[in-house]
Design brief:
381 residues, binds iron/sulfur cluster, TIM Barrel, 2 domains, alpha/beta, binds NADP nicotinamide-adenine-dinucleotide phosphate, 10 strands
Amino acid sequence: MKYRTLGRTGVEVSVLGFGAMRLPQRGREGEVDEPAAIELIRWAVDHGVNYVDTAYVYHAGAGEGVVGRALRDGYRQKVQLATKLPIWSVERLADCDRIFQEQLDRLQTDHIDFYLLHCLQKTYWPKLRDLGVLQWAERQQAAGRIRHFGFSFHDSYEAFVEIVDAYPWSCCQIQYNFVSEDVQAGTRGLQYAAAKGLGVIVMEPLFGGTLANPPPTVQRLWDSAGAGVRPPDVALRWVWDKPEVSLALSGMNALDQVRQNVASAERSGAGTLTADERGLLARVRDEYQRLSPIPCTKCGYCLPCPSGVNIPVNFELYNQATVFQGSSRLLCRNLYLSLPESERADACARCGTCEDRCPQHLPVAELLQRTSEHFAAADGP
Ligand SMILES: NC(=O)c1ccc[n+]([C@@H]2O[C@H](COP(=O)([O-])OP(=O)(O)OC[C@H]3O[C@@H](n4cnc5c(N)ncnc54)[C@H](OP(=O)(O)O)[C@@H]3O)[C@@H](O)[C@H]2O)c1
Ligand code: SF4
Ligand code: SF4
C-alpha cells in the first residue's frame, strides 16, 4: 500500500480508503450482508487500508453499526475512522449532541478521527455557521471526541472556495474523477484546497461504479487499448496521479474489487500515468462527451440570466443523468433538486437573452424545458 500525508493534519493515510456507502447487501434496501461486509473491511485493513469512511445515513442508518462491528477485535486501532453529521437534520445544537452520541455508540468508539459536515452546500452553509456548529465541533475536539474536522461537498466551485476560505478546516471530501474534472469543486477546487493545507479526500473516483461499466462505444475504446487495461484501474490511478489528492475512497462491495483496487493503489503515484494512458482517458472522456445529449461547453457566455437560471449546471446535470446509469442518475437528480429554485431549469422565463450569447447557438430555453421535464418526472431520471 502507498501512503500520503493528509494535509495539515500530518496523518499518514493509505491512498485507498474504504467507502462504506456500498456495502454488500442481501437484496432489500438497507439490509447489509454483514458477514460479507466485515470480511471486506477487514481484508482491506489487513492489506494496508487505514481509512474507513461512513456516515449516519448510509444503508438507511445501518451502515455505522456494521462498520463498528467490523472494527472490533483490534481493527479500530488500525484505522482512521471518518463519519459525517447529517446537516439537514440539524435545527439546533442539541441535535448535534444527540446525533454525535448515537454515532459514537453505533461505531463503538470514544472518538471519531475525521468528522465531516455531510454534503455541505451553499444552501446549508450560512444556517450551520450561524447556529454555531463550528464552535460545537471545536468543543468536541477539545474534549478529544473529534480529532479532525472537515466537510464533504457537492456544489459549485464558487461555493467551495467560499466555504474553504471561511474556516481552518482539516480536510474536505469532493467528488472527483476523470470524466468530471471540471464539475463541482473539480481540479481547480482540489488545487485550491490543497494549497490552503486541507487534506483532500476524493469520493466517487469511479463515478459510483458507472465508469467501471461503460456503454458499448466507450467499452470499445477500452478494448482497443489491450487485454490487460481495465477501466477501474486506470480511472483510480488517474486520481492518484494528482499530487494534491490525499486519498481516494472507493465503495467496494466484493472481495475481487477490494483486491483489484488495493493492487491499483500499490501501482499508483503522482505523475505516473503513461502518455498512452492519458491519451486513452482523453478519448474515453471525449466519447462520454459525444454521448451527452446537450453539446454545452460550459463556457458561461450565456450568464448571467436575468431570472438567475444557472444554465451550464442544469445542462451538465441533464447530460450526466442521461449518459450514466444507476446511482449517478439518482445523484444528478438530487443535485438538481438541491439547486436554489431560481437556478433550476424550470425558472426560465424564455426571454431569449442567453440564446443570443451562446457561441454554440443552442436553443437554450427549449433545452432547459427538456431538462426541467426530465427531472420533474415522477420516477426520476
Ligand atoms: N459525502 C458524500 O456526500 C458522499 C457521496 C458519495 C460517496 N461518499 C463516500 O465516498 C465513497 C466512495 O464513493 P463511491 O462509493 O461512489 O466510489 P466509486 O469507487 O466511484 O464507486 C464504487 C462502486 O464502483 C464499483 N467498483 C469499485 N471497484 C471496482 C472494481 N475494481 N471493478 C469494478 N467495479 C468496481 C462498484 O460498483 P458496483 O456496485 O456496480 O459493483 C462500487 O459499488 C462512498 O462509499 C462513501 O463512503 C460520500
Ligand atoms: S431564456 Fe431563460 S435561461 Fe435564457 S436568459 Fe432568458 S430566462 Fe434565462
Ligand atoms: S453559452 Fe451556450 S455553450 Fe456556453 S455555457 Fe451557455 S449554453 Fe453552454
